[in-house]
Design a protein that fits this description.
heterodimer; A: 466 residues; alpha+beta; seven-stranded antiparallel beta sheet; six-stranded mixed beta sheet; 9 helices; 24% strand; elongated; B: 455 residues; alpha/beta; eight-stranded mixed beta sheet
Chain lengths: 466, 455
């Protein structure tokens, strides 16, 4: 099995298995072994002949535990897993192709979604049913376990190997779930174990961690520390918070905001120059979103929202992206503004952005001052360093405008520089094509800035935490 | 533009041959299958004679029509509907009257048809879908002229008025209908929150309903193909009127434990129970589908409903029987008790299967008797197929050892006292209309069914 970011496919198997057990005394010594026995039964169930994988949006059914049988004759154990694609009906076959631009980067692995089912026909025996009654007072526990296993593979991997791998993954996940359930159980109170997938740097690749539902990330610090050690991850930035969970390429974001529109652009080809980009994921916030008409005054607020979205999605904070009102209130709370500021349409600048990031997110920022727009062309090194070490989006305000800088292409030798700008002044809908075509997210040269105005840049710093 | 009923010639023969005492009426059931375009009637059965103790009741009303025993007709309908495999159901009623009563016949039929539908559908574990036909047919036959008047009522609309319908006789209406079949492993764990009969029955019903929803939502393969969307059921059989061979299509059912309302929880659902009941075993299921371009998903729906119905019916029968034998204070006792098992028999001429349920102490003779009484058909005992569901091999005594149940805490189980007399030793009185039973007990059975599975 290959675990590399160059994998062509991710096979994702989801299903619900009901965990059920009857406990005479939830606080007694027997209860742990009863719970373990129930999990053991579930593990037997997934290794039994009755489990079936159904490939979503296709007529394909696979019985992985009967020496590989499938409902479609041409798919055998020797088939390459890529062969499965011809059977899958995509929802929007045509439009997917039209949105692909020639300069679009590789869109990532194809996700094949599968569902876990159990056959109830073709039983082993044929004894007619009976009623079996037990009259002890018991605590009846029922809990749906949300199984979710993912495997990264290359096109030529055999389908049979993929299915065997998925069965193994199911088994392991049940074992992990058992551990979590037992660890967090209090008497007859059970927390649902929830799996999360994370794409870690090589060689770990795509891994799955089970966390107890309802326990916030802040209380799972020790668990993450163990895992950081195990996977040799840096200890100063989060990889395993719930917000860091791998976003499957075929899943839409429920909130409707565009993520990282810049990846659809090709950076300018400057001789001898290197690319320094924002790291991780941010959402594009701009004028008129969320039914707020901030056209003409809200640009810095939107840039601030983009930055907040970055901290949320990298797992540093759990708070939602603040509204204009919340931003204004924060400034009143720190004493920077009078109470009547709230509800007004007053502009804010880099200093206010820094103050809000500190107040609402606990994030510190560096301020860079530039006395003339023309000077920005000389700030290549600072910006390159920032993107390399912190990798956070930069808010820049000056003249009468605020923008977000997402990266630079800079040559140390020639000093040539281009800026990747995300423009909050866009008033349209979340249309990627328009946003990239019309340059609302685009590469600009030094002439983009008002050469005579002074500018302040707010460079947010990553907190050191996991 | 009413409905069209295509009726088998055997039904015509039966209806024509009904004997009526002068001046009296005969009621009966019509069974078959409905599809959105047309309906097929394959069976007609007159209401069996109700034996009453003592003197015959004095005529209550002005006319024999008022004497029609609505309860009896509906009880008969319920019993017959339990004997029909999937795809087949009660489609309506017929009424034979002397010419002078023909005018009032329609009202009588209307009363009957609504009462019957209400009674049959009580306690059903699956919901009607939008595509289900809710029209029931009423057929009036004049005993002298043999003339028929056919009308339908929409039984889901209390204000429905009679709509005219076509009644056409045809040969071999169901002769080429494919039969779906499968054996289904059932393993349902139902927690009991109390021990009184009322609570037991409610818990059973809730638990079985959850299971029924899983079956309804399950993925289904018929003859190796997915039964999805609007694709036609491919039975692979050419329509050849000369072939009498009926195709059997194997069905396979795949379930998931998904329950939408539970899946949003972050913690387990824990109930303090006074015990639990498990329904465990294998049921054999059959369903027929008409061969007038049927859709695969209708076929899937038919077999799924049969799966749900057969489990529900036998649990109902078991509880009814328990009530009659032991009274309501006993309820279910601990241990393992066999549910009645399903046997199949062919109906003469059409060859369609009907089924019945055999208690452990019964024999094929009992089944044959019931088939004669309920379906008015003589089936030789050797034609009754008891091999499809295996006999439960243990003694059906209360407090007997429980077979290993994986999730239960091992040792301590409270057994209720072992009964000194095996309640099944005496031949269980037939809990539905039967030769041996008095009208009073039969009425009790009716009341019981109404009580336990009441909404």
């Amino acid at each position: 099995m290959v675990y590399s970011e160059e994998c062509d496919f991710i096979f994702r198997l989801k299903g619900i298995l009901e965990f059920a057990c009857q406990l005479d005394n939830p606080n007694g010594v027997q209860s742990q072994s009863t719970i373990s026995k129930s999990f053991q039964d579930l593990r037997s169930k997934v290794t039994s002949k009755n489990i079936v994988f159904t490939v979503c949006n296709s007529p394909v059914l696979i019985w992985p535990n009967t020496g590989f049988q499938s409902s479609v004759e041409s798919l055998t154990e020797a088939s390459a897993c890529g062969d499965i694609l011809q059977w899958i009906e995509s929802d929007d076959g045509g439009s997917k192709k039209s949105s692909k631009k020639k300069d679009k980067k590789k869109s990532g692995p194809t996700v094949v979604n599968m569902k876990l089912l159990f056959e109830v026909t073709e039983p082993a025996g044929n004894t007619a049913p009976s009623l079996i009654r037990v009259s002890t007072q018991q605590h009846c526990v029922k809990m749906p376990l949300p199984l979710d296993c993912a495997l990264s593979v290359t096109t030529d991997e055999r389908l049979e190997t993929v299915c065997t791998g998925l069965v193994e993954a199911l088994n392991k996940q049940l074992a992990d779930m058992e551990e979590v359930v037992l660890q967090y159980r209090k008497g007859s109170s059970f927390l649902v174990p929830q799996p999360f997938h994370f794409q870690l740097p090589e060689p770990a690749g795509l891994i799955t961690v089970v966390y107890p539902a309802g326990v916030p990330d802040s209380q799972l610090q020790a668990v993450r520390e163990d895992l950081h050690r195990k996977f040799e991850l840096p200890c100063d930035r989060p990889y395993l918070r719930r917000a860091n969970a791998f976003h499957f390429p075929d899943a839409a974001y429920k909130d409707g905001y565009l993520r990282n529109p810049h990846i659809h652009l090709n950076p300018p080809n400057i001789e001898d120059a290197k690319l320094y980009l924002v790291q991780g994921v941010y959402s594009y916030h701009h004028y008129m979103q969320d039914h707020v008409d901030d056209n003409g005054w809200g640009c810095a607020y939107r840039s601030l929202q983009t930055i907040c979205s970055w901290f949320q999605q990298q797992g540093y904070v759990e708070t939602a992206v603040p509204t204009h009102t919340q931003i204004q209130q924060a400034l009143v709370d720190v004493g920077d503004k009078e109470p009547r500021f709230v509800g007004s349409r007053q502009w804010i600048g880099s200093i206010e952005v820094q103050a809000v990031l500190n107040q609402l997110l606990g994030v510190t920022s560096k301020i860079m001052f530039v006395s003339q727009g023309s000077e920005l062309a000389t700030k290549g090194r600072e910006l390159a360093n920032h993107f390399q070490t912190e990798g956070t989006p930069v808010m820049i305000g000056g003249g009468v405008l605020a923008h977000t800088i997402l990266g630079v292409v800079w040559s140390e030798n020639t000093g040539q520089i281009r800026f990747l700008i995300l423009d909050p002044h866009y008033t349209g809908g979340e249309d990627l094509q328009t946003i990239t075509d019309k340059g609302w997210c685009g590469w600009k040269g030094p002439e983009f800035w008002d050469q005579n105005a002074y500018y302040n840049l707010c460079l947010p710093q990553r907190p050191k935490s996991i | 533009m009413g409905r069209s009923y295509f009726v088998d010639e055997a039904v015509e023969e039966y209806l024509v041959g009904i004997q009526t005492a002068p001046g009296s009426c005969v009621t009966g059931l019509l069974a078959g299958q409905s599809s959105p375009q047309r309906d097929f009637v394959v069976l007609a059965v007159q209401t069996p004679h109700r034996e009453s103790e003592g003197q015959p009741k004095a005529s209550r009303g002005v006319s024999p029509l008022d004497d029609i025993d609505v309860e009896w007709v509906t009880e008969h309908a319920k019993q017959v509907s339990r004997m029909l495999p999937g795809g087949l159901c009660i489609l309506g009623l017929f009424l034979v009257t002397p010419p002078e009563l023909s005018k009032d016949a329609q009202n009588a039929l209307k009363r009957l048809i609504f009462a019957m539908d209400k009674y049959i559908t009580k306690g059903r574990l699956w919901e009607l879908s939008e595509e289900d036909v809710t029209d029931q047919v009423t057929l009036h036959i004049c005993s002298k002229t043999k003339k028929t008047v056919c009308k339908t009522f929409d039984v889901k609309d209390p204000k429905s008025s009679a709509k005219p319908a076509d009644w056409k006789y045809q040969t071999g209406v169901s002769s080429s209908w494919p039969m779906l079949s499968c054996s289904v492993a059932v393993d349902v764990q139902i927690p009991m929150t109390g021990s009184s009969s009322d609570i037991t029955d409610k818990c059973m019903k809730d638990g079985l309903r959850r299971w029924a929803k899983q079956i309804e939502a399950a993925c289904c393969l018929i003859n190796g193909r997915h039964a999805l969307d609007d694709s036609e059921l491919v039975s692979g059989q050419k329509k050849n009127p000369k072939t009498t061979h009926r195709q059997t299509l194997p069905a396979r059912i795949f379930v998931s434990d998904e329950q939408a309302e539970l899946d949003e929880r972050s913690s387990a659902l824990v109930q303090l129970c006074s015990g639990s009941v498990k329904v465990r075993g294998v049921v054999h299921c059959r369903a027929y589908i008409h061969n007038n371009k049927p859709k695969a998903r209708h076929a899937a729906q038919a077999i799924k409903r049969d799966i749900i119905n057969t489990v529900c019916s036998r649990v109902e029968m078991f509880l009814e029987d328990l009530l009659i034998n032991e009274g309501s204070h006993k309820g279910l006792c601990s241990g393992q008790q066999a549910l009645p098992r399903r046997v199949f028999a062919p109906v003469p001429v059409s060859g369609l299967s009907v089924c019945d349920y055999m208690f452990p102490d019964e024999s094929t003779a009992d089944v044959a008797e019931r088939l004669k009484e309920m379906l008015d058909c003589k089936t030789p005992e050797e034609d009754i197929d008891t091999s499809l569901e295996g006999n439960q091999l243990f003694s059906n005594v209360c407090g007997s050892e429980i077979t290993e149940s994986p999730s239960d805490d091992s040792s301590k189980h409270v057994f209720s006292e072992v009964q000194t007399e095996n309640p099944k030793n005496q031949k269980a009185p037939q809990y539905y209309a039967g030769v041996a039973i008095t009208a009073a007990v039969a009425l009790l059975a009716t009341a019981t069914s109404l009580l336990y599975f009441n909404e």
